[in-house]
Amino acid sequence: MESLFDRAQALEKLHGQGRLPKTLQGRVLACLFYEPSTRTRLSFEAAMQRLGGGIVSVSGAVSSSAAKGESLADTVRVVGSYVDAIVLRHPESGSAAAAAAVSPVPVINAGDGSHEHPTQALLDLWTIKKELGRLKNLHIVMVGDLLYGRTVHSLILLLALYPSCQLTLVSAPTLSLPDEYKNFLRKASTRFEETDRLAEALSSADLVYATRVQKERFRSEAEYEQYKDQYIINQQVMAKLKKQAILMHPLPRLSEIAPEVDADARFAAFRQAKNGLYLRMALLEKILA
Ligand code: NCD
Fold first, then answer.
1. Pairing state of beta strands 191-195 and 54-59?
2. What distances in angstroms separate CA 78 from CA 30, 35, 83, 184, one per listed residue?
3. Average pLDDT of span 80-96
4. From atom 12 of ligand 1, which residue's Cα is the shortest distance away?
Protein backbone atom coordinates (compact mmCIF):
# COMPACT_ATOMS: atom_id res chain seq x y z
CA MET A 1 0.00 0.00 0.00
CA GLU A 2 2.80 2.40 0.85
CA SER A 3 4.36 1.89 -2.58
CA LEU A 4 0.96 2.39 -4.23
CA PHE A 5 0.48 5.64 -2.32
CA ASP A 6 3.96 6.87 -3.25
CA ARG A 7 3.36 6.10 -6.90
CA ALA A 8 -0.09 7.73 -6.85
CA GLN A 9 1.50 10.85 -5.35
CA ALA A 10 4.16 10.89 -8.05
CA LEU A 11 1.58 10.42 -10.81
CA GLU A 12 -0.50 13.28 -9.41
CA LYS A 13 2.53 15.53 -9.57
CA LEU A 14 3.44 14.41 -13.10
CA HIS A 15 -0.14 15.03 -14.21
CA GLY A 16 0.07 18.57 -12.82
CA GLN A 17 3.20 19.11 -14.88
CA GLY A 18 1.62 17.63 -18.01
CA ARG A 19 4.23 14.84 -17.99
CA LEU A 20 2.27 11.64 -17.38
CA PRO A 21 4.19 8.63 -18.76
CA LYS A 22 2.60 6.21 -21.26
CA THR A 23 3.30 3.22 -19.01
CA LEU A 24 0.18 1.33 -20.11
CA GLN A 25 0.63 1.67 -23.86
CA GLY A 26 -0.55 -1.45 -25.66
CA ARG A 27 -2.56 -2.69 -22.67
CA VAL A 28 -6.34 -3.05 -22.75
CA LEU A 29 -8.66 -3.02 -19.75
CA ALA A 30 -12.28 -4.23 -19.74
CA CYS A 31 -14.80 -2.52 -17.46
CA LEU A 32 -17.78 -4.78 -16.76
CA PHE A 33 -20.32 -2.85 -14.74
CA TYR A 34 -23.60 -4.51 -13.83
CA GLU A 35 -24.53 -1.77 -11.35
CA PRO A 36 -24.57 2.02 -11.67
CA SER A 37 -21.26 3.86 -11.28
CA THR A 38 -19.81 7.28 -12.01
CA ARG A 39 -16.56 7.72 -10.12
CA THR A 40 -15.29 4.16 -10.03
CA ARG A 41 -15.82 3.39 -13.68
CA LEU A 42 -14.84 6.75 -15.12
CA SER A 43 -11.74 7.07 -12.95
CA PHE A 44 -10.57 3.60 -14.01
CA GLU A 45 -11.21 4.48 -17.65
CA ALA A 46 -9.56 7.88 -17.43
CA ALA A 47 -6.60 6.41 -15.53
CA MET A 48 -6.09 3.78 -18.24
CA GLN A 49 -6.36 6.27 -21.10
CA ARG A 50 -4.16 8.94 -19.53
CA LEU A 51 -1.39 6.34 -19.15
CA GLY A 52 -1.69 5.40 -22.81
CA GLY A 53 -3.81 2.25 -22.42
CA GLY A 54 -7.11 1.33 -24.03
CA ILE A 55 -10.46 0.32 -22.62
CA VAL A 56 -13.46 -1.74 -23.65
CA SER A 57 -16.50 -1.28 -21.54
CA VAL A 58 -19.92 -2.74 -20.77
CA SER A 59 -22.30 -0.91 -18.49
CA GLY A 60 -25.53 -2.57 -17.46
CA ALA A 61 -26.62 -5.99 -18.51
CA VAL A 62 -28.84 -4.57 -21.25
CA SER A 63 -26.17 -4.21 -23.91
CA SER A 64 -24.25 -7.40 -23.18
CA SER A 65 -24.99 -11.10 -23.40
CA ALA A 66 -26.09 -11.08 -19.76
CA ALA A 67 -29.39 -9.88 -21.23
CA LYS A 68 -29.55 -13.18 -23.12
CA GLY A 69 -28.93 -15.09 -19.91
CA GLU A 70 -25.20 -15.73 -20.18
CA SER A 71 -23.53 -16.55 -16.86
CA LEU A 72 -20.97 -14.16 -15.39
CA ALA A 73 -18.39 -16.95 -15.51
CA ASP A 74 -18.79 -17.44 -19.26
CA THR A 75 -18.67 -13.68 -19.91
CA VAL A 76 -15.49 -13.32 -17.86
CA ARG A 77 -13.80 -16.27 -19.60
CA VAL A 78 -14.45 -14.72 -22.99
CA VAL A 79 -13.71 -11.09 -22.11
CA GLY A 80 -10.53 -12.25 -20.34
CA SER A 81 -9.29 -13.63 -23.65
CA TYR A 82 -9.58 -10.16 -25.24
CA VAL A 83 -7.99 -7.94 -22.59
CA ASP A 84 -5.19 -7.74 -19.99
CA ALA A 85 -7.37 -7.14 -16.91
CA ILE A 86 -11.03 -6.85 -15.96
CA VAL A 87 -12.66 -4.35 -13.60
CA LEU A 88 -15.94 -5.82 -12.36
CA ARG A 89 -18.88 -4.32 -10.48
CA HIS A 90 -21.72 -6.73 -9.83
CA PRO A 91 -24.71 -6.84 -7.46
CA GLU A 92 -23.83 -10.25 -5.97
CA SER A 93 -21.53 -10.59 -2.97
CA GLY A 94 -18.61 -12.82 -3.90
CA SER A 95 -18.99 -12.23 -7.65
CA ALA A 96 -15.50 -10.76 -8.06
CA ALA A 97 -13.85 -13.74 -6.36
CA ALA A 98 -15.95 -16.12 -8.46
CA ALA A 99 -14.96 -14.26 -11.62
CA ALA A 100 -11.28 -14.27 -10.65
CA ALA A 101 -11.44 -18.04 -10.22
CA VAL A 102 -12.29 -18.55 -13.91
CA SER A 103 -10.64 -15.51 -15.49
CA PRO A 104 -7.39 -15.89 -17.45
CA VAL A 105 -6.45 -12.29 -16.47
CA PRO A 106 -6.51 -10.31 -13.19
CA VAL A 107 -9.94 -9.21 -11.95
CA ILE A 108 -10.28 -6.00 -9.93
CA ASN A 109 -13.29 -5.87 -7.64
CA ALA A 110 -15.08 -2.54 -8.20
CA GLY A 111 -17.88 -3.46 -5.76
CA ASP A 112 -19.56 -6.82 -5.24
CA GLY A 113 -23.02 -6.18 -3.87
CA SER A 114 -23.02 -5.10 -0.24
CA HIS A 115 -19.80 -7.03 0.39
CA GLU A 116 -16.65 -5.05 -0.47
CA HIS A 117 -15.13 -2.27 -2.58
CA PRO A 118 -11.37 -2.59 -2.13
CA THR A 119 -10.11 0.08 -4.55
CA GLN A 120 -12.33 2.64 -2.80
CA ALA A 121 -10.74 1.61 0.50
CA LEU A 122 -7.26 2.13 -0.95
CA LEU A 123 -8.11 5.62 -2.16
CA ASP A 124 -9.83 6.36 1.15
CA LEU A 125 -6.77 5.31 3.12
CA TRP A 126 -4.49 7.36 0.89
CA THR A 127 -6.81 10.33 1.36
CA ILE A 128 -6.62 9.96 5.15
CA LYS A 129 -2.84 9.87 4.96
CA LYS A 130 -2.70 12.92 2.69
CA GLU A 131 -5.22 14.95 4.63
CA LEU A 132 -4.24 14.11 8.20
CA GLY A 133 -0.56 13.35 7.68
CA ARG A 134 -0.62 10.01 9.47
CA LEU A 135 -2.35 6.64 9.76
CA LYS A 136 -1.93 6.10 13.48
CA ASN A 137 -3.58 7.30 16.68
CA LEU A 138 -6.67 8.47 14.83
CA HIS A 139 -10.20 8.56 16.16
CA ILE A 140 -12.41 7.64 13.23
CA VAL A 141 -16.19 7.98 13.28
CA MET A 142 -18.06 5.97 10.65
CA VAL A 143 -21.71 6.87 10.24
CA GLY A 144 -24.64 5.75 8.14
CA ASP A 145 -25.37 2.39 6.56
CA LEU A 146 -22.68 0.16 8.03
CA LEU A 147 -24.60 -3.00 7.20
CA TYR A 148 -24.80 -2.64 3.42
CA GLY A 149 -22.08 -0.03 2.84
CA ARG A 150 -19.35 -1.93 1.04
CA THR A 151 -16.89 0.97 1.18
CA VAL A 152 -17.04 0.83 4.98
CA HIS A 153 -16.42 -2.93 5.01
CA SER A 154 -13.30 -2.66 2.89
CA LEU A 155 -11.99 0.37 4.75
CA ILE A 156 -12.40 -1.48 8.07
CA LEU A 157 -10.17 -4.28 6.75
CA LEU A 158 -7.44 -1.77 5.95
CA LEU A 159 -7.83 0.26 9.14
CA ALA A 160 -7.40 -2.94 11.14
CA LEU A 161 -3.77 -2.82 9.98
CA TYR A 162 -3.38 0.32 12.13
CA PRO A 163 -4.45 -0.88 15.58
CA SER A 164 -3.54 2.41 17.27
CA CYS A 165 -6.61 3.87 15.56
CA GLN A 166 -9.90 3.85 17.41
CA LEU A 167 -13.31 3.58 15.76
CA THR A 168 -16.76 4.79 16.69
CA LEU A 169 -19.39 3.06 14.56
CA VAL A 170 -22.59 5.11 14.40
CA SER A 171 -25.70 3.56 12.88
CA ALA A 172 -29.24 2.45 13.56
CA PRO A 173 -28.97 -0.87 15.45
CA THR A 174 -30.51 -2.63 12.44
CA LEU A 175 -27.86 -1.18 10.09
CA SER A 176 -24.81 -2.00 12.21
CA LEU A 177 -21.52 -3.42 10.96
CA PRO A 178 -21.73 -7.18 10.15
CA ASP A 179 -20.07 -9.50 12.68
CA GLU A 180 -17.34 -10.68 10.32
CA TYR A 181 -15.87 -7.14 10.26
CA LYS A 182 -16.25 -6.67 14.00
CA ASN A 183 -14.42 -9.96 14.53
CA PHE A 184 -11.69 -8.72 12.25
CA LEU A 185 -11.27 -5.59 14.39
CA ARG A 186 -11.23 -7.71 17.56
CA LYS A 187 -8.52 -9.97 16.15
CA ALA A 188 -6.46 -6.93 15.20
CA SER A 189 -6.99 -5.50 18.73
CA THR A 190 -8.43 -2.32 17.21
CA ARG A 191 -10.64 -0.54 19.72
CA PHE A 192 -14.18 0.17 18.57
CA GLU A 193 -17.53 1.10 20.02
CA GLU A 194 -21.02 1.02 18.53
CA THR A 195 -23.69 3.63 19.13
CA ASP A 196 -26.70 5.17 17.42
CA ARG A 197 -25.79 8.67 18.62
CA LEU A 198 -23.57 10.77 16.41
CA ALA A 199 -23.23 13.91 18.52
CA GLU A 200 -21.14 12.47 21.35
CA ALA A 201 -18.32 11.13 19.22
CA LEU A 202 -17.74 14.31 17.25
CA SER A 203 -15.60 16.46 19.51
CA SER A 204 -12.73 13.97 19.67
CA ALA A 205 -12.96 12.75 16.06
CA ASP A 206 -10.10 13.24 13.60
CA LEU A 207 -12.20 11.92 10.76
CA VAL A 208 -15.89 11.42 10.10
CA TYR A 209 -16.60 8.95 7.30
CA ALA A 210 -20.24 9.33 6.25
CA THR A 211 -22.09 6.97 3.92
CA ARG A 212 -25.28 6.85 1.92
CA VAL A 213 -28.10 4.57 3.08
CA GLN A 214 -27.89 1.92 0.35
CA LYS A 215 -31.41 2.16 -1.03
CA GLU A 216 -30.89 -0.60 -3.60
CA ARG A 217 -30.21 -3.21 -0.87
CA PHE A 218 -33.49 -2.74 1.01
CA ARG A 219 -36.47 -5.00 0.51
CA SER A 220 -38.94 -2.13 0.32
CA GLU A 221 -39.04 1.61 -0.26
CA ALA A 222 -40.85 2.00 3.08
CA GLU A 223 -38.00 0.33 4.95
CA TYR A 224 -35.47 2.60 3.24
CA GLU A 225 -37.52 5.73 4.00
CA GLN A 226 -37.31 4.89 7.68
CA TYR A 227 -33.52 5.26 7.71
CA LYS A 228 -32.61 7.67 4.97
CA ASP A 229 -32.64 10.90 6.95
CA GLN A 230 -31.54 9.56 10.31
CA TYR A 231 -28.12 11.23 10.22
CA ILE A 232 -27.70 14.56 8.51
CA ILE A 233 -24.40 16.39 8.68
CA ASN A 234 -24.99 20.14 8.47
CA GLN A 235 -23.15 23.24 9.72
CA GLN A 236 -24.37 22.59 13.25
CA VAL A 237 -22.74 19.17 13.23
CA MET A 238 -19.56 20.54 11.63
CA ALA A 239 -19.32 23.11 14.41
CA LYS A 240 -18.75 20.26 16.88
CA LEU A 241 -15.77 18.90 14.92
CA LYS A 242 -12.17 19.84 15.60
CA LYS A 243 -10.63 22.47 13.33
CA GLN A 244 -8.15 19.96 11.89
CA ALA A 245 -10.68 17.13 11.52
CA ILE A 246 -12.03 16.10 8.11
CA LEU A 247 -15.30 14.80 6.72
CA MET A 248 -15.09 12.11 4.02
CA HIS A 249 -17.78 10.41 1.92
CA PRO A 250 -17.32 7.96 -0.97
CA LEU A 251 -20.10 9.75 -2.92
CA PRO A 252 -22.77 9.87 -4.22
CA ARG A 253 -24.12 11.81 -1.23
CA LEU A 254 -27.80 12.34 -0.83
CA SER A 255 -29.36 14.07 2.15
CA GLU A 256 -26.74 12.82 4.65
CA ILE A 257 -24.45 15.79 3.98
CA ALA A 258 -26.19 19.15 3.55
CA PRO A 259 -24.97 21.29 0.62
CA GLU A 260 -24.13 24.08 3.09
CA VAL A 261 -21.20 21.92 4.25
CA ASP A 262 -19.52 22.13 0.83
CA ALA A 263 -17.98 25.51 1.63
CA ASP A 264 -16.25 24.04 4.72
CA ALA A 265 -12.62 23.21 3.88
CA ARG A 266 -12.84 20.15 6.15
CA PHE A 267 -15.26 18.51 3.72
CA ALA A 268 -12.83 16.34 1.75
CA ALA A 269 -15.14 14.21 -0.42
CA PHE A 270 -14.30 15.87 -3.72
CA ARG A 271 -10.55 15.74 -3.05
CA GLN A 272 -11.11 12.10 -2.07
CA ALA A 273 -12.85 11.36 -5.40
CA LYS A 274 -10.01 13.00 -7.33
CA ASN A 275 -7.47 10.89 -5.46
CA GLY A 276 -9.25 7.88 -6.97
CA LEU A 277 -7.85 8.73 -10.39
CA TYR A 278 -4.21 8.62 -9.27
CA LEU A 279 -4.62 5.67 -6.94
CA ARG A 280 -6.21 3.67 -9.76
CA MET A 281 -3.42 4.73 -12.14
CA ALA A 282 -0.88 3.38 -9.66
CA LEU A 283 -2.86 0.17 -9.21
CA LEU A 284 -3.23 -0.41 -12.96
CA GLU A 285 0.51 0.13 -13.43
CA LYS A 286 1.24 -2.41 -10.69
CA ILE A 287 -0.99 -4.98 -12.37
CA LEU A 288 -0.36 -4.26 -16.03
CA ALA A 289 2.87 -2.36 -16.66
C1 NCD B 1 -19.92 3.73 -3.48
C2 NCD B 1 -20.33 2.35 -3.97
O3 NCD B 1 -20.63 2.17 -5.15
O4 NCD B 1 -20.27 1.46 -3.15
N5 NCD B 1 -19.68 4.63 -4.51
C6 NCD B 1 -18.40 4.70 -5.01
O7 NCD B 1 -17.90 3.76 -5.60
N8 NCD B 1 -17.69 5.81 -4.77
C9 NCD B 1 -20.79 4.28 -2.41
C10 NCD B 1 -22.29 4.31 -2.63
O11 NCD B 1 -22.79 3.96 -3.69
O12 NCD B 1 -22.96 4.72 -1.68
1. unpaired
2. 11, 20, 9, 36
3. 97
4. 212
Whole-number Å distance between alpha carbons of 228 and 139 = 25
pLDDT band at 59 (very low <50, low <70, confident <90, very high): confident
Q: List the Cα angle 196/241/136 in 5-degree steps.
A: 85
Mean pLDDT for 194-207 is 96
Describe the strand order of the beta sheet including 191-195 as a list of residue ranges: 191-195, 166-170, 139-143, 207-210, 246-248
Tell me the C-alpha to C-alpha distance, in Å, between residue 62 and each of 35, 69, 141. 11, 11, 39
Percent of the chain with pLDDT over 70: 99
C-alpha 84/C-alpha 107 separation (Å) is 9
pTM: 0.97
CA of 111 relative to ligand 1 center, distance in Å: 8
Q: What is the pLDDT of residues 1-12, one digit of tens each?
A: 999 999 999 999
Q: Using the mean position of ligand 1's atoms as its centre, give its distance from the Cα of residue 120 in Å.
A: 8
Residue 219 has pLDDT above 70, yes or no: yes
Would you state the pLDDT for residue 3?
Answer: 97
Which contiguous run of DSSP H or E holds residue 175? none
Ligand 1 centroid from CA 110, angstroms: 9
Residue 251: which region, alpha, beta or left (left: phi > 0; alpha: psi -120 to 50)? Answer: left
Q: Which residues line ligand 1 (CB under 6 A)?
A: 39-40, 111, 117, 120, 150-151, 212, 250-251
Task: Give, in order, the Cα–Cα distances in Å from 202 to each of 174, 242, 266.
Answer: 22, 8, 13
Q: Is pLDDT at 71 greater than 80 in this prediction?
A: yes
Does residue 150 contact residue 112 with C-beta atoms inside 8 Å? yes
CA 54, CA 57: separation in Å to the nearest integer? 10
Averaged over 186-196, what is the pLDDT? 97
